[in-house]
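Re-run with default settings, no changes from the original entry. Doing this only to confirm the output is reproducible before filing.
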Amino acid sequence: MASTSTVFMKTIFIVLVFVSFTISPAISTAPENCGIESANLCINKAKALPLKIIAIATILVASMIGVGAPLFSSNVPFLQPDRNIFTIVKCFASGIILGTGFMHVLPDSFAMLSSQCLEENPWHKFPFSGFLAMLSGLITLVIDSMATSIYASNNNTDEIVPHGHGNDFTFPTKDEDSAQLLRYRVIAMVLELGIIVHSVVIGLSLGATNDTCTIKSLITALCFHQMFEGIGLGGCILQAEYTNMSKFLMAFFFAITTPFGIALGIGLSTIYRNNSHTALITVGLFNACSAGLLIYMALVDLLAADFMGAKLQGSVKMQIKCFIAALLGCGSMSVIAKWA
């Protein structure tokens, strides 16, 4: 299992690098006013660089706090995974991931792929963002299912515990516990992949801009964004019961992706423009794919699994508490969407 996890994490890193260098050659081929920074008073390359360095440091710290908090909570008795408070916090974190997909990533994709800097045909004649988000959700379902089957066969698990859409609840056996653990591990890995792609993209956009007004507003918003998103991912990693090294690697990859994206954007700032033809298409398509993945994971693997599980089905009071927690998670990301 450990070797399989290591291979999967290496695959994630390779995908991350591939995505980054796919985006990098985003040189404008659009009309005259596209791909050129507007001449407003906030555009100042000299002042923007120190702000970007500050952004790298603060977002790195916020990401580490967010993803690390659930992992260290395992040492706190009332925050153990089998306690009600953990389930409530997990639903809040799932709401954050759902809000990220609907309120941040998907709207950004629609805005980019409907930009006036893109040709009327085909970008304004077909909803590529919605189509790719839908397709990404279906592909995530296939990956989710196949990865679970492969893990089960590698670990001699004959039966996979379903997501919980049933009414017959029995006390879990050892095999069922093992199968559920495999589900948690698949969920954590697929979720991390989606978040990593999204984090690199938003970091790249911040690192490439020289608009100091935009950078100042984004620093605070992205700190909260990454911290909340880290809480959601950290909770999934905790439930997956990885080795300490695997937990560290997954937390490390999450924490460095946005700062890495910012650094990459700084290095490419001479050729990369957020409103260039290639940048709009590339980032818009990746955002759509990431949105579909995040929405699927939040609704199917996280919220539905909890709400249809034995613990919540046995208590209406707990269902209400978890629904309010999920609603607060979505609401917090909706508020942050005003700035980021």
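The two ends are 38 Å apart (CA to CA). The chain is about 75% helix and 0% strand.
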